[in-house]
Design brief:
By secondary structure, the protein is of the alpha/beta class. It has helices at residues 13-24, 31-40, 44-55, 61-72, 90-102, 117-125, 165-179, 181-188, 201-213; strands at 2-6, 28-30, 81-84, 109-114, 127-130, 136-138, 157-158, 192-196. A hairpin with a 5-residue loop joins strand 5 and strand 6 (136-138). It is globular. It starts with a strand and ends with a helix. The structure holds BIS(adenosine)-5'-pentaphosphate. The site of BIS(adenosine)-5'-pentaphosphate has 35 residues, from helix 1, helix 2, helix 3, helix 6 and strand 6.
Length: 214
């Protein structure tokens, strides 16, 4: 099964796609995680992406598209994948369509998670992420059992440098201008499934499983 998770920063794409990946046994491909790893490793891509990411802007399409093309050619994607945070512009969506034609495959569902803006700001400003496995926690909504450490792998938790309030507002504005048009784009293709991303993580996950199995 091939899936796209759409939604604004903080909607829960990472949280839900990790669970879906465990359940469906297909990889979660997060362009944000791939870019953060490239930054940490100081690869040419990571160095080019750095300033865009810290200010909350999108990394240019050509860089992201070649990164994702390479990732989707890995053997673990043969049975399907969950795209988390890609595509993010109409240009990226068109590039993805071309990749799907070349690989003679298609997209099964595009799930859009919608959440009100003030809730998104609260979620992002309290988010803590595991350095080792990438699992997300929240200081109030989803605290880890041991303060500062991941429940899943014991790794250290950190706060992302783009989770500061002024950068969060910029990311939300970039989302509205550059990514939200994809909702209509995929609705016209009959692929869009909409889920309200409010409630417990488990409740949303259950709805999501029903939607993608339907
Ligand atoms: P990326 O890492 O993709 O960030 P994002 O899209 O801004 O999404 P987030 O990871 O912030 O949010 P999420 O929806 O995954 O929510 P999460 O599950 O973590 O991108 C970062 C940057 O990389 C971009 O700004 C850009 O520069 C660059 N980039 C990435 N992809 C790109 C692309 N395709 N093109 C160009 N540039 C790209 O949840 C958030 C918080 O809420 C967590 O604390 C979580 O615990 C909590 N939470 C989750 N669910 C719930 C719930 N139901 N109730 C209460 N709290 C909840």
């Amino acid at each position: 099964m091939n899936l796209i998770l759409l939604g604004p920063p903080g909607a829960g794409k990472g949280t839900q796609s990790r669970r879906l990946s465990d359940k469906l046994k297909i990889p979660q491909i997060s362009t944000g995680d791939l870019l953060r790893a490239a930054r940490t490793a100081k690869t040419p891509l990571g160095l080019q992406a750095e300033s865009y990411m810290t200010s909350g802007k999108l990394v240019p399409d050509d860089l992201v598209v070649s990164m994702i093309r390479e990732r989707m050619q890995q053997p673990d994607c043969r049975k399907g994948y969950i795209l988390d945070g890609f595509p993010r512009t109409v240009g990226q969506a068109e590039a993805l369509e071309k990749m799907l034609i070349v690989s003679q495959s298609g997209m099964d569902h595009v799930v859009n998670l919608f959440v009100a803006e003030e809730e998104l700001v609260k979620r992002l400003s309290g988010r803590r992420q595991c350095r080792k496995c990438g699992e997300n926690f929240h200081t109030s909504f989803l605290p880890s059992r041991k303060d500062g450490f991941c429940d899943r792998c014991g790794g250290e938790l950190f706060q992302r440098d783009d989770d500061r309030e002024e950068v969060i507002r910029n990311r939300l504005s970039v989302y509205g201008k550059q990514t939200a048009p994809l909702i209509e784009y995929y609705r016209k293709q009959g692929l869009l499934r909409e889920i309200r991303g409010v409630g417990t993580v488990d409740e949303i996950f259950e709805t999501m499983l029903k939607v993608v199995s339907g």
